[in-house]
Amino acid sequence: MNPAAVKTINRTLAYVCLIAASAFFIIPFIWLLSTSLKPLTQIFSFPPEWIPKPFLWSNYSRAIEYIPFWTFLRNTAVITIFSTLGVIVSCPIVAYSFAKLEWRGRGTLFFITLAVMMIPSQVTLIPLFLLFTKLGWVGTPLPLIIPQFFGVPIYIFLMRQFFLGLPDALREAARLDGASEFRIYLQIMFPLAKSAVLSVALFQFMASWTDFMGPLLYLTNEISYTVSLGLQQFQSQKGSEWGMLMAVSTLMTLPIIVLFFFLQKTFIRGITFSGIKG
Amino acid sequence: MEKLAGAAPAAAVPATRRKRSLRRIGITGWLFASPWILGLLCFYAVPMLSSIYFSFTTYSILQPGEFVGLSNYVELFNDPLFWKSIYNTIYFAVFFVPLSIFVGVSLAMMLNMKVKGMAMFRTIFFLPTLVPQVALSVLWMWLLHPNFGLVNGMLASIGIDGPPWLGGEAWSKPSLILMSLWGIGQAVVIYLAGLGDISEEYYEAAAIDGASWFQKTRAVTLPLLTPVIFYNLVMGTIGAFQQFTLPYTLTKGQGTPSNSMTFYVMYLYENGFRYFKMGYASAMAWILFVIVMALTALIFVTSKRWVHYQGK
Hints:
- The structure holds 2 protein chains of 2 kinds.
- By secondary structure, chain A is mainly alpha-helical.
- Chain A contains 14 helices and 2 strands, in the order αααααααααααααββα.
- In chain A, strands 1-2 form a two-stranded antiparallel sheet.
- In chain A, strand 1 (235-236) and strand 2 (239-240) form a beta hairpin.
- In chain A, helix 4 runs antiparallel to helix 11 (194-210).
- The radius of gyration of chain A is 24 Å and the shape is globular.
- Chain B is mainly alpha-helical.
- Chain B contains 14 helices and no strands.
- Chains A and B meet through helix 1, helix 4, helix 5, helix 6 and helix 8 of A and helix 2, helix 4, helix 5, helix 6 and helix 7 of B.
């Protein structure tokens, strides 16, 4: 066989593999959308049908009325926004001190931080629950927000790697100009770390938006539920409201996809970064 | 440790000034790190110590605990559901972790080919990781529905009578593994980055020696990908042992059918927050900690034999 033919065969083979594998990843997704737009009778038709007949947008409007959707959405948004804010406020500055400042005990404390990353969160689950109960925070979003303002080990680790890569010369120059360490951090280093901060923010956004166990533990009143918890209300003893479940699942996924679409470069860089330097 | 501590390169500053600024920076460093020092104490150190203590008591949220020594641990070892949850969790980890590495590396190698439209393919593989776990479980419950699900529908169209999937004891864990593989995109991205890091020179050298694709994969790609595989192996193992949201939402916390879906952390949660046996659950948490630590240590020890770093 001549080389050109081999190349064509290889390329065709590559596409066949890629398309076959893609199918596994995209079909469930399309099915989610399709089911969310189907009438009940069609959902239970066998063999399954792909195209909704007719397109039933009312699954969405009914679902939104079936549960206090807007309340749940607002609760989710509050938790997500504030916990992301917390992470941005705390993690870079702590990471900066680990990476660029010299202080006694820094090495030990960083080692402890790494060790803490390995501890399953279940170990601290019960004492934390009791602590938040004592503080009167159970039933409010506070347990899901406040700890983030005190730093998250994995993000501190990530950001530290990033700061280590920034040249020291910038700092030296600013210091000669008489800038305080805090100003150097706020006006020079933090802006330089924008891409790392953004990926950490995205990680936290996703984690908060999709969290289930946290809200399950701490949000005890329906009025404070998040969308994740709200989804459970479509599953009753009588059976599940599949159309509405899929509609709300779609609504829940959509914001993340939109976010991902706009920030995908940073996002993938952020993930890459966490993997390789780990 | 030297490398981890990451000492900033010694700046070329005169010794006396360096000393003075060191003292000042010492305080600044502590100040900058203070939120985390506080967080470490409040949200990690103190809770961990209390958790050890609770594990030796009959603590429940309703009444103060009584010190009972090791009896929680003894009771656990006599609790069939505890063993069942360990079995389920290990079953999941043993099949899922190696499978996810195999599938992840294969996919990454496919996505690393130089053909047109790759950006689109990469996005498709990443999409499922954006679906929240709760939504993911709802979706797959429906896909795997024994009577009306798409999977059995497709199987029926080629004449196969599909299994009951989540409804059957034998199939519930394989179903969970299948579902979890759907969310493999994040690991794939990490592998992709690893592949991108492998220097072209190795492939050129191999090509000069007349190596086939298979030989290149075996002798260049896989060995040089081992640091990334190592990372994903550690993370994957830790994650597998903490499986909660999927089995919990799939079975509404029941672990059905026949407790085949009662996973370790789920059982821990049930004990702590349904039966309020906080002491018992704390003991479970520490056993989990020991298991995870032992496994991580094992992986680290053996890694010296199979993890190769480029240029070494």
